[in-house]
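Late entry, written up from scratch paper. The run itself happened at the end of the previous shift, but nothing got recorded in the book at the time, so transcribing now.
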Amino acid sequence: MERLNKNFLWLSAANIVSSVVNVGLFIYLARALEAESFGYFSYATTFVFYLFNFIDLGLTTYGIREVAKDNSRLPQYVSNILSFKSVLAVFIFLGFLLAVAFSCQPALIKILMAETALLLLVGSLSTEWAFQGLEKMHMVFISLVTTSFLQFGLTYMFVKTPQDLLKAPIVNFIAPIPILIIFLWILKFKFSIRRPELSNIKRYLSSSMAIWAISVFAQAYNGLDIVILGLFRSPQEVGYFTVARRIANGAGLMMIVLAGAVMPHLSATFVRDRARFAVATKKFLRISMFIVVLVFIPVIVFSKQLISLTVGPEYLQASLPLEIMMAALVLVMFNMPFSTGLIAAGFERDVMRQTFASASVSIVSNFILMPKYGMIGASVSFMLAESLALGWILYLYKIKIRKG
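Output as recorded:
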């Protein structure tokens, strides 16, 4: 378990440092742009980040799992996956620009959406997943921390007032580029989309598409609610809800850290050593409960004070949605160790069916509740989706792993 502890510590350090910087960036942007411009920026960013799901297609999670099993094939996985994703990103970027150009949005929003979409191009070449598969989490630390500091520094230099709204997405595009170039060189990336590489990608996709579907469906109740809220409510309310959503997502970030640390270990041990697999899953669950007590409960109890001290009293209307979503995230803390174990063990198609059901509940309830209840309805929809997810995952784990 020494390697697992080391993985967790490096990823924790990476995410703690980058999260602190990103919280500072979030607070700075919320104050500098003010509620209306910040609402526009959040809407565009959330929309574009949702498109990342259609570039990744589950290939990075698949890559982590497969590299953990056989790291001698790392150069092949890196070159094949990143080449395919970069080409796909270009097509999606151009298609998105065309759709935005013919939309009914104001000119400012069109420009903002187009600039934000540049993130698709740099995001398609991210390499952290390769180092996670190798269990070299210190490289993930270098990537996340360096990029976060660059993003904060550039934003502080160039984004000062709501009139600087269009500079913010350009900063987000530029910040990852230096570390991206260095890491691609270290991993000896070679761009190629010839027939042999396409044949490999087809084979990868046969497994990764189920993982991709999980990501898409999960996004439906972990961010798409901001987009849907923008259809029914004012930019100011979108801004308030974005504050609640970002704080909740930030509090839940440690679950992503844990999953990233544990996934390679679970993938490598499921077939060879079921005892170690079970021990890692139990340790994941214990740490999850520790995070609930240490982080989640204090956020719920002191939500108003947290919002007031960070983004300011202007955003205090976000407190009740935040409290509801934090309660829902407690359910996620119980869910994540078992869903991660199921994916590591190769039962991603079963998890996919669960996320589809939860996403369906989220979307339907959002469209029912949002027109009347706005961001409160969005928070309740999130709670309903996560309640279904927890019950389903516990049942799957019982019949697939414990009785398998």
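The longest helix spans residues 348-402.
(Scratch paper discarded after transcription.)
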